[in-house]
Fold this sequence. Notes:
The chain has 417 residues and is α/β, with parallel strands linked by helices. The chain folds into 2 domains: 2-183, Flavin prenyltransferase-like (Rossmann fold, 3-Layer(aba) Sandwich), CATH 3.40.50; 193-416, Rossmann fold. Helices cover 35% and strands 23% of the residues. It has helices spanning 2-5, 23-35, 54-61, 77-84, 95-103, 109-114, 129-133, 135-146, 172-183, 218-229, 257-268, 311-324, 343-353, 395-416; strands spanning 12-17, 39-44, 87-93, 121-125, 150-151, 155-158, 164-168, 193-198, 203-204, 210-211, 233-238, 249-253, 273-276, 283-285, 305-307, 332-339, 358-363, 375-382, 387-394. The strands form 5 sheets. It has an 8-stranded mixed β-sheet with strand order 12-11-8-13-16-17-18-19, with helices on both faces. It has a 5-stranded parallel β-sheet with strand order 2-1-3-4-5, sandwiched between helices. The protein has a two-stranded antiparallel sheet with strand order 6-7. Strand 6 and strand 7 form a beta hairpin. Helix 2 runs parallel beside helix 3 (54-61), helix 2 packs across helix 9 (172-183) and helix 5 crosses helix 8 (135-146). The longest helix has 22 residues, at 395-416. The chain is elongated. It starts with a helix and ends with a helix. The relative contact order is 0.09.
Amino acid sequence: xxxxxxxxxxxxxxxxxxxxxxxxxxxxxxxxxxxxxxxxxxxxxxxxxxxxxxxxxxxxxxxxxxxxxxxxxxxxxxxxxxxxxxxxxxxxxxxxxxxxxxxxxxxxxxxxxxxxxxxxxxxxxxxxxxxxxxxxxxxxxxxxxxxxxxxxxxxxxxxxxxxxxxxxxxxxxxxxxxxxxxxxxxxxxxxxxxxxxxxxxxxxxxxxxxxxxxxxxxxxxxxxxxxxxxxxxxxxxxxxxxxxxxxxxxxxxxxxxxxxxxxxxxxxxxxxxxxxxxxxxxxxxxxxxxxxxxxxxxxxxxxxxxxxxxxxxxxxxxxxxxxxxxxxxxxxxxxxxxxxxxxxxxxxxxxxxxxxxxxxxxxxxxxxxxxxxxxxxxxxxxxxxxxxxxxxxxxxxxxxxxxxxxxxxxxxxxxxx
Length: 417
């Protein structure tokens, strides 16, 4: 189940537990969500505490489990917890709790929090067969579904007291899969194959030394994370960096420009979008020395260089060939231009010369933007005439702006096809 739970990595999950013997499965669910990287906040009805105590959930999640509306009343728990949640799951959900949800009752912490939720909601019922089959319960379930709640289960199996029939809480793995589905975006980038490059490359001189640049990879990693958040299947080709890998992204580690070229060209063959944010070295040493060059040797004073391939230009040329041959649609191409002067003029030249759809031009000679900082300012230029200036902002926010433009291009392409 951890594989499915990892799709919720970094998410704030609100887990509501109501009174039923199946509450022990809620503890297992909380544990697996935490193992998958989610932040889990548990709230319990008074009935739930008769089966599993708040201390159990606190120990599993590392957070206090709340049971009452008036616990620390000044914090207004039900409002705050609802606002913090990326997704809410109620497991097990008894017939009583489901009835409260459907009727809009708010007489305890769990039902009060439910009425404040604006995020996706998953409800996993658990009760005896007769209760599940009762027309009132079925009407209440239908009401929740009509309002957008995702109901998962119940399944048929052993119930409390030795009974057998429908009403058994589904397994935690099924609940996690439903949660992942509820969070899956439906926008233009959803299910698209996106290749993102990030970081600088290192071109070795000998086993110790290399030619490199100051790129940290932060912009490319922010783009990969934002594309993944929007539901894309992201392949991140990364040069050496100390950054944490973005959740939900497949990463390919490379070191040199030639290694990055091989990885990108292979992945781009069936991609929908390629975003080249990496700072690839333009040159590499013509000769690699197998042994460390001693500093007294003349070779260190005269390192002969040869040009690296232009990966973005190759992608643009391949796209033009596919278009002229009437082949399948080539991926959208997004490039970056790190400039220190004449940024718009140089950006427009690169946009057209390399056959791009969009280019993000950023100045790298300022202390608060460019390499090794968390902020950036940029100029977005599109082949369709787009010109958008993005003032100083975080790289995460700039990534969202870039992804907005990518989605607009995808929609336009779809309409034209």
